[in-house]
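Example record

One chain of 136 residues, shown exactly as stored in the release files.
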Amino acid sequence: MMTNTEALQAILSRVGTFTGMKKTNIQLANNQIVKGKPFEPPKGEIWVKITVKNAGSFISGIGNKPCTRTTGIVFIQLFAPLNSGTNDLSLLADKWSDHLQFYSVNRLEMLEANILDTGENNGYYQYNVNVAYRVN
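Predicted structure tokens for this chain:
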């Protein structure tokens, strides 16, 4: 059985292997303060915020005891400076999608990725890549 913590660590480990952008432009949810400063979005560059949300568990089978599956979603929010176009944003969203969807390790299965154009948000243009996952 894989715990929620183990699933989170496996997902973040996979995120850490992404080579499509600078690591300094990736913000993880509730990032630790680095050198006394919280994450600051880079000026004039695309940056991302990654959040892993557990969506709960359900009983998937009954034998000697109930068997459960845990589901969740990895949210990757991509932000580009306004008026910089969407091509680079779209290409980066494709790279994140390719990197995460259908990846599996141990009992973790990353499922399909969805790319959503969410438009303007607080001075940035935003795309989201949402990747469902399950733990068997």
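Notes: The radius of gyration is 17 Å.
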